[in-house]
Amino acid sequence: MASKSGRKVIVTCAVTGAIHTPSMSPHLPVTPDEIAENAIAAAEAGATVIHLHARDPQTGRPTQDPAAFQQFLPRIKQNTAAVINLTTGGSPHMTIEERLRPASHFKPEVASLNMGSMNFGLFPMLDRFQTFQHEWERQHLENSRDLVFKNTFKDIEHILKTCSGNGTRFEFECYDISHLYNLAHFLDRKLVTPPLFVQSVFGILGGIGPHPEDVMHMKRTADRLFGDQYVWSVLGAGRNQMPVASMSLALGGNVRVGLEDSLWAGPGRLATSNAEQVRIVRSLIEGLSLEVATPEEARAMLSLKG
Ligand SMILES: C[C@H](N)CC(=O)CC(=O)O
Ligand SMILES: [Zn+2]
């Protein structure tokens, strides 16, 4: 039986993030030019949604200063129709007020929202990366041994109320099963409205693992809690990026790639750009006779303000 024309798949590209540091890869975008060029190239390669963090151009240190975002946002908006998704996670070392600044300033179509507090173990990367240009990079990893990424119910409600008023909708980052129940709690209280864009995060130490059974467990639980009121997407950290993406595609889901989540294009092979990862996941999508959703199709699927 011929397959119907391809299901539309939302491809999110997370361009730089706040987890990896400049000494880990020469291809990690740091300056406003690098972030803008990477975002535009990722959109040209097919990325539907662009997830953005900012960095200090000199040190590469994560910053939530709206002035830093202002250095690249207009250029990205002028050169792509992609949906803009601004982080409210910032870096796990930041306060909620600091983390909330870009989203409350720019009132984006989408903002990320982390659905629970958790240990956030980055220190295992010290086994892979030992030489750092800046001391803060080593501290960033070392300090994660005693780091709690704080997202209390009060914090989440504060972000929801601050952003919803601006017509901003959310990418709900769920790092574990409990985070799905937290989201269900806010749905019951009508503080979030369907369709819920659920981004399941696999393979961050402190959250759920990247095993196929973990992916199935997240999917089954989300199906039970949200039925047809959600749009499911996944991200796999590090080497799990493409295997987890493949599972999502086979299960009817959407995908997130980008150097925020993984520096790799293959075993021991650093990705030379975000667009390279978009092209890889696109070949998986088209290999399954599916189609990459356009930004307009994603706006309809996610009920965005456009
Ligand atoms: C695992 C990712 N760092 C999830 C994330 O992108 C969080 C955020 O920016 O709010
Ligand atoms: Zn992020």
Automatic annotation (TrEMBL):
Pfam families: BKACE (PF05853). Its cofactor is Zn(2+). InterPro entries: Aldolase_TIM, BKACE. Keywords: Metal-binding, Transferase, Zinc. Gene3D superfamilies: Aldolase class I. PANTHER family: 3-KETO-5-AMINOHEXANOATE CLEAVAGE ENZYME (PTHR37418:SF2), 3-KETO-5-AMINOHEXANOATE CLEAVAGE ENZYME-RELATED (PTHR37418). This is Uncharacterized protein (DUF849 family). It comes from Azospirillum rugosum.
